[in-house]
Design brief:
- By secondary structure, this protein is of the alpha+beta class.
- The chain has a single domain, classed as outer membrane lipoprotein receptor (LolB), chain A, CATH 2.50.20.10.
- 12% of the residues lie in helices and 29% in strands.
- It contains four helices and eleven strands; from the N terminus they run ααββββββααβββββ.
- Strands 6-5-4-3-2-1-11-10-9-8-7 form an eleven-stranded antiparallel sheet, with helices on one face.
Length: 298
């Protein structure tokens, strides 16, 4: 069971919607409390007008193909690492602004940091839209699949309610639950009857759970690139005692929906999380995000 807890430490994404399981590498645990996602209809070409007077038999009625259920992205290989040249132009046009979305308030007032100069106009347009997407994402219910550094896989359901709250319920045989209540992140092991606590501010989850976020001003953004499948941003976090880790957030190039993230810990080990079947209309019960600080297991 300790192996599960180590991999969870690697994920603490980001919600999760977003929704949408990220590494908490480098986080210092708080003291534990006393024990205690149109079915292609078969194309039927209308029959040509008969050349002879004798009518031809009518064609058979088309048979609608069955609609396939949404499935997660293939996880046979980890996604590509970000390119070394962060100023390279992307062939991907700036993604459309989601309807009803608004940019983070700071984007219109505070001056840009010096680091913004390394990104061209197209990259900055992508950054603004990713920031807008994350800021407007309020609630998500969905499923996830996780690939640990050793290739082992787990899956389950996750729930996100901003600001600050997310929950990952791992399917059996994993005994793990991960809950963030806005202040802390609790990693529970039901089999071992243990609970480890971490400040949410020391985990990459804050990028997903912040009420509002401007990636250029609020994070150390080191890469922005894309293709016809993904729009990707890479954030680097440096910690004096533990070293640096990176969070690579990947979004659908067409609709900007969060698809997956990869956390690279200071040792260069990747933990990949894919989210799918996302529902942004359903609101989770706030009671799901409570952490019992008085005992190890609720």
């Amino acid at each position: 069971m300790n192996r599960h807890k180590l991999y969870l430490a690697a994920i603490l994404c980001a919600l999760a919607g977003s929704a949408l399981i990220v590494s908490i590498a480098g986080a210092q645990p708080l003291p534990s409390p006393p024990a205690a996602t149109a079915p292609p209809s078969i194309a039927v070409v209308p029959p040509a007008k008969p050349l002879a007077v004798k009518p031809k038999p009518k064609p058979k009625a088309p048979v609608a193909a069955k609609k396939k259920a949404a499935v997660p992205l293939a996880l046979d290989h980890n996604p590509p690492r970000p390119p070394g040249d962060i100023n390279g132009n992307s062939a991907l046009p700036a993604p459309p602004v989601p309807p009803g979305s608004v940019p983070p308030p700071a984007a219109q007032s505070a001056p840009l940091p010096p680091s913004a100069s390394k990104f061209d106009a197209r990259q900055r347009a992508i950054i603004d839209r990713v920031s807008s997407y994350l800021s407007n994402l309020r609630t998500v219910v969905g499923e996830f699949k996780q690939v640990a550094p050793d290739g082992s896989r787990t899956d389950g359901d996750f729930y996100l309610l901003k600001p600050g709250r997310i929950r990952f319920d791992y399917n059996a045989p994993s005994p793990v639950e991960l809950i963030a209540d806005g202040k802390s992140v609790a990693v529970r092991d039901r089999t071992l009857a243990s609970q480890d606590l971490y400040p949410i501010s020391q985990t990459p989850l804050r990028f997903l759970l912040a009420d509002r976020i401007d990636l250029l001003r609020d994070t150390n953004l080191v890469a922005v690139y894309g293709d016809n499948i993904f729009v990707t941003v890479v954030i680097e976090e440096k910690q004096i005692m533990r070293g640096s880790y990176r969070v690579m957030l990947m979004f659908d190039a067409q609709n900007m929906q969060l698809k997956q993230w990869v956390v690279t810990d200071p040792q260069g080990m990747d933990t990949t999380v894919v989210v799918f079947n996302l529902n942004t209309k359903s609101t989770p019960d706030p009671g799901m995000f409570k952490i019992d600080y008085t005992r190890y297991v609720r």
